[in-house]
């Protein structure tokens, strides 16, 4: 997975927000908020990790079953793609 350029993750207290910067700020009129798990996944996307690497990290860090981590990552990826935040 690869994050589109022009978007940054910012933390405000316990909340995380993805904001557009530069030229993208003019065209992006959405507010993307993430919980801690979403921010955890997004940081792996910033590092251009594969889906399998993200699933493995979730499984280890949050001690969840692989099947749950796989479905959560797929759903999260679909939402980010629909919002225009990742390159396919």
Helix-strand layout with pairing:
Layout: E1 2-3, E2 7-12, E3 15-20, H1 24-27, E4 32-34, H2 36-46, H3 51-62, H4 66-83, E5 86-87
Antiparallel strand pairs: 1-5, 2-3, 3-4
Helix pairs in contact: 3-4
In short, what is this structure?
The protein has 88 residues and is of the alpha+beta class.
The geometry reads as: globular
| Strand count | 5
Largest sheet strand order: 2-3-4
Profile the largest sheet: 3 strands, antiparallel
Number of domains: 1
Poorly predicted regions are none
Helix tally equals 4
Question: Would you give an account of this structure?
Answer:
This protein is α+β, with helices and mostly antiparallel strands and 88 residues long. It has one domain. The chain is 51% helix and 22% strand. It is built from four helices and five strands; from the N terminus they run βββαβαααβ. The chain has helices at 24-27, 36-46, 51-62, 66-83; strands at 2-3, 7-12, 15-20, 32-34, 86-87. The strands form two sheets. A three-stranded antiparallel beta sheet has the order 2-3-4. The longest helix is centred in the last third of the chain and has 18 residues, at 66-83. The termini are close together. The model has no long low-confidence stretch (mean pLDDT 88).
